[in-house]
Design goal:
Elements (H helix, E strand, L loop, with lengths): L1 H18 L1 H8 L5 H12 L2 H19 L1 H19 L5 H4 L2 H17 L2 H10 L7 H29 L2 H6 L4 H4 L1 H13 L5 H8 L7 H8 L1 H31 L5 H29 L2 H22 L4 H30 L5 H17 L1 H12 L4 H16 L29 H9 L5
Helix pairs in contact: 1-5, 1-8, 1-9, 1-12, 2-3, 3-20, 4-5, 4-7, 4-19, 5-7, 5-8, 5-12, 8-9, 8-18, 8-19, 9-16, 9-18, 15-16, 15-18, 15-19, 15-21, 16-18, 17-18, 17-21, 18-19
Length: about 450
């Protein structure tokens, strides 16, 4: 819960912003050209392209020097306050150009704080669970992303179904952002009650903490950083395009109602959330790479039929197609993905390594709604989202061939479990499981 709650808050409010982009465009960027207003809205949405990687570097340094617990508490405070602030900004009609300026500032702080959330939460979970169940437990981190997106989607659906357009533009869109403040207080309480992870405590007690985590990572772990970025690219782009951008695409390009677009997307997100822990558990038994290969191939197979049949298809067909590519295929790929990231790096630079690699992929993914809105307006092709996803997934698929198997059960080197708690390779399964059952002590 401590590792995932900040991620849930981040994606709940990211999804509110993405799903209500058309309403927000009218509030902050009034224009006679709807496309221009939407581009401005998605331009602000894409600000993490700059601020998130910077925040990732800053907070990763803290996380690998002072520990996971205190860093994640600071991240959550900044994220909750900046997200809640968005819901308090007056409209353009009330204060003029100051409104979009304040929105930009809030998004900068929000993106900066979010840069330290994902890697830290993943490291916290991975360093706190048994190695034989690590794949399933760490998969709850990306599952919380989908759960936050699903909650935001259902919340937006409930608002748009129960409020008039005038009510939505006046105050309805603000509610989702303001909820971040009480949720953040709950998350902060949980995180402050944690103990530091055993893996970090071990290197701290032995005075083996990295003096300059970023420099050390770039010098000794640059290949693993590129591998994380490579395998993350397809997942992050598909996630943003199919599960965040698609409701806007269905509304603005194919003239579906807002409630219909949110409903089909919510079903796809539900399939995504349910598939992730199943794939994570399978990766504990079969290894991390088999679900990654299956998921990437499935995304490549389904993405073009999905966008081809969006135009003119009935709502049930659209829901099934979204669930296939954005639910089952993406969920299968995502299940073991984050666990692979944390297993690639040693404890002293784990936070930094994962943060650098993941945030590199964010550059292409967070900007995708803006890029696709512009590309479709220039080319007139409704297949642009499919080409964009396919190109990113192809990069990830090729990266898998140079990725080592990281699951300890399949011969991967266990960088995470403290040396004092690792059993010899010759130990039997009973001996390995015994400390947890109380039969033996480490």
């Amino acid at each position: 819960m401590a590792g995932a709650i900040g991620n849930f808050i981040e994606w709940f409010d990211y999804s509110i912003y993405g799903f209500m982009a058309v309403t927000i465009a009218g509030v902050f960027f009034p224009s006679d050209d709807p496309t221009a207003g939407l581009l401005a809205t998605f331009g602000v949405f894409a600000l993490p392209v700059i601020t998130r990687p910077l925040g990732g570097v800053v907070f990763a340094r803290f996380g690998d020097r002072i520990g996971r617990k205190r860093t994640l508490a600071l991240v959550l405070i900044l994220m909750s306050l900046s997200t809640g602030a968005i819901g308090l900004i007056p409209s353009y009609a009330a204060i003029g150009v100051a409104a979009p300026v304040l929105l930009v500032i809030a998004r900068i702080v929000q993106g900066f704080s979010a840069g330290g959330e994902y890697a830290g939460g993943a490291a916290l979970i991975a360093e706190s669970v048994p190695a034989r169940r690590r794949g399933m437990m760490v998969s709850l981190m990306p599952a919380s992303t989908g759960f936050g997106l699903l909650a935001g989607s259902l919340f937006a659906f409930a608002l748009t179904s129960s409020l008039t357009d005038a009510q939505m533009e006046s105050w309805g869109w603000r509610v989702g952002f303001l909820i971040a403040i009480p949720m953040g207080m709950v998350g902060l309480y949980i995180r402050l009650r944690l103990e530091e992870t055993a893996a970090f405590q071990e290197i701290a007690e032995s005075d083996d903490v990295a003096g300059s985590p970023v420099r050390e990572t770039l010098q000794a772990q640059w290949a693993n950083v590129l591998k994380v970025a490579g395998i993350a690219l397809g997942q992050t782009v598909c996630y943003y395009v199919v599960l965040v951008y698609t409701p806007t695409f269905l509304r603005t390009e194919l003239d579906y109602s807002e409630s219909d677009a949110l409903l089909t997307t919510s079903l796809a997100i539900a399939a995504y959330v349910l598939t992730i822990p199943v794939a994570g558990r399978l990766s504990d038994r079969l290894g991390r790479k088999p679900p990654l290969f299956v998921g990437s191939v499935a995304m490549l197979v389904f993405v073009f039929p999905t966008f081809l049949l969006f135009d003119g298809g009935n709502l049930a067909v659209i829901g099934v197609l979204q669930a296939l590519v954005g639910g089952l295929a993406l969920g299968c790929y995502t299940g073991p993905l984050v666990c692979v990231w944390v297993e690639l790096f040693p404890t002293r630079v784990r936070y930094t390594g994962v943060s650098l690699g993941f945030n590199l992929s964010v550059i292409a993914s967070v900007s995708s709604p803006f890029v696709l809105t512009w590309l479709i307006s220039r080319t007139g092709s409704d297949l642009m989202p499919a080409w964009y996803v396919a190109a990113a997934v192809a990069v990830s698929f090729l990266t898998l061939f140079v990725l080592p198997e990281t699951a300890p059960a399949k011969g991967g080197h266990d960088h995470i479990t403290p040396a004092s708690q690792q059993q010899p390779d010759s130990a039997s399964r009973t001996e390995r499981d015994a400390p947890r059952s109380g039969l033996l002590r480490p």
